[in-house]
Amino acid sequence: MKINALAGVILGFVSATVAGAQQPASPQLETPYECQGFTITIHRCGNVGGQDVCMFRADMPGGQNVEGNKPRQEAIALLKACKLQPPGAKKSGGPLNPPYLSEMPSVERVMQAMKTNDPRESALRQIGAFYQLSEVIATLSGPREIRGYMPDEQRIVQEYNVASYNVAKAADAAFPGPYGTEKTLSDNRPYRYSRNDPRFGFKGIAVWQTFLSPGMQAQFAKIIGQDNAKYEAKVAEQRRSAAEALTANSAPANSPAGGGSSNGMKNDPGSVAARRCLESGRDQMECMGQGIKTGLNDLFGGFVGGVMGNDIPAASTGPAGMRISGDFSAAEARIIFSEGEVSIACGTLVPQKVGYTVDRSGGQILVKVGIAPKALAATLRADGKLAGPGPVLVAGRVVIGTTTVGGGSGGYEAQTHTTTQERQIAAADVPNYSADAVHQNGMEYSVSEQQTSTTYEPTAPQRRVEPATAPKTERCNIGIIPGKPPVGLVAGLSALLDPSAAKAPPKPFGLRMAGTYAAASGMRIEFRIDSATVECGEAHVAMPYDVENADGPLKLKMKNPAGAFVVMLRSDGNIEGSGTVNLAGRVITGSRGDEIVYAARNASCPVGTLAPKRAD
Asked: Are 375 and 369 in contact (CB under 8 A)?
């Protein structure tokens, strides 16, 4: 609300109040003061046109507010008759509105709860808590996050923002210079999780358990997750972990913060995944893709999924056990197997992705593809061909034209407006300005001032043209279909960026393995379609492997550079081997120019029985 008649009433009251008040030392910025019938918040004070003034907002019952400015001394005098109002306190106009704000902790409570023995870690935790609490308000406020908060919401968010700024400023002054991998201490953001991340409010700083009720957390999760079972499961796991950490009074997050480590290398999930990939000896392009995919999954709480495709070989995402790799094409159908799913095209139907299972019975490899109306049962033959039942019905969708999608209310976009206004000044103030800035008209003097304001304007709805489809069921002949190695995204990128990579061996074809298996001895094997990484101690080595479907258990022949070995896939799903495996690995210790510097890491582990690990 701009200055108007209502402002005149308030300012008149202000002027009357100033007359008899004593002056405090200085106003506290962005902190509400409860006065007689309204609340005053001082935004900032400073020199404007040669006059020392303070800009303020007055909030009144009913949601009305006034923005204005007064000379500093008058503003300071006014506040002497008012009382500071911490977050969570009732205003003169009644209880907090909306009511959920009554749970929001005061700045002082957050500062105290986030303290540790390390003042640097305390600052990072306090900054993270203020950020997460502000995000809770942003989420629970719904469309008001864009249209504008209610006065109480705006006030508390401002208090958290100001407190966060003050903590960061003080921390950088107390501990100047780089910290972790950032230029300053406050540039580290170890607790700045996206509100969509299931770790939000739990990981590192237990904001939910420390400050807010289970009911508020459930309301927040319902808005974010929208009944997504996977999200709810991940939130439940994070809640359990946070509760265990609080019970055990665990130590604060690793320091240096911000994803740093003692050797200066980042420890965020994406960087760790890329580094381990390179250390194991895999292709650099693959490792770059794995780092990006793992980092995005970490950022968004595991929902990237197939957005980047199963071609990018991150950690196994499908079920542990036997998988198929291959592109099987016939006149009427095409079936492409990847680690986690099948892409199937039939006649004029749009290609669709479905799940599949692989079983072994009497030496035969049985494949079941989850199409409708009835699953497709096929056999992977020893010669690499896929043997289907013949004519099958496939339900899917067919393109019938195009349609325009999108629209709705669009969104809001910040628009900055700058205007130039003339302001009269006294003759005595002319020396305070440069000669070309002062305009003289007879005995009157004025200066030009630029005023900047920001508004949020609605944007046009985003529309796009997409194929229009309709349901259809077609009949395809899936008999004996020859296959070939699939071409993955990584191989295509490698060939494009480095032509010599096109000469690399093709992607393995036929029966493969997936998933991570671990033994009590510390040995782990992570199977992918293209290779397997064997880990023992600090050594982890990527190696090719062959799958041999002969009599008895399935044989997995591991082509370890330091000595090949064989393990068996048992009928109970475990892997079993004998003897000891020696690994000649390496770890990244730094870089020299554009070169990565490695140090050798050798280790030995007995094989024994390895059980499949559940995917996180």
From this structure: yes
With H, G, I as helix, E, B as strand and everything else as coil, classify residue 317.
Answer: coil
3 touches 65 (CB < 8 A): no
Task: Tell me the pLDDT tens digit for each residue of 552-603.
Answer: 899 999 999 999 999 999 999 999 999 999 999 998 887 776 678 888 999 9
For residue 535, give every residue at least 6 positions away whose Cβ sits within 8 Å of its Cβ, in sequence order, or none.
523, 524, 525, 526, 583
Question: What is the Cα–Cα distance from 550 to 569, expressed in whole angstroms?
Answer: 12
- State whether residue 51 is helix, strand or coil: strand
pLDDT digits (tens, 9 = 90+) for 206-254: 899 889 888 888 889 888 887 677 777 777 777 777 776 655 543 333 4
Q: How many CA atoms lie within 13 A of 208 on its CB side?
A: 24
β partners of residue 255: none
Tokens of 112: 């105290």
| 530 membership: H or E segment, kind and range | none
Q: How far apart (Å, rounded) are the C-alpha atoms in residues 534 and 518?
A: 10
Q: Which residue has the tokens 């043209």?
A: 465
- 423 vs 448, 449, 572, CA distance in Å? 6, 7, 85
Joined tokens for residue 560: 């370890």
Q: Which two tokens stand for residue 250?
A: 């665990």
Residues with Cβ within 8 Å of residue 490, at least 6 apart in sequence: 283, 285, 286, 289, 311, 312, 313
Inter-residue contact 543 to 562 (CB < 8 Å): no
What SS3 class is residue 403?
strand
Instruction: Give the three-class secondary structure for 375.
Output: coil
Taking phi over 0 as left and psi of -120 to 50 as alpha, with beta for the rest, 30 belongs to left
Beta bridge partners of 376: 369
Helix, strand, coil share (%) of the chain residues, nearest 5? 30, 35, 35
Omega prior to 256 cis, within 30 of 0:
yes
- How far is C-alpha 434 from the geometric centre of its chain's CA atoms? 50
Residue 454 in contact with residue 354, Cβ under 8 Å? no
| Secondary structure element (H or E) that encloses residue 425, with its range | strand 411-425
Q: What is the length of the chain?
A: 616
- What Rg, from alpha-carbon coordinates, does the chain have? 33
Measure CA 527 to chain center.
27
- Give, in order, the Cα–Cα distances in Å from 319 to each of 339, 486, 528: 9, 20, 11
Taking the mean position of all CA atoms in its chain, how far away is CA 456?
26
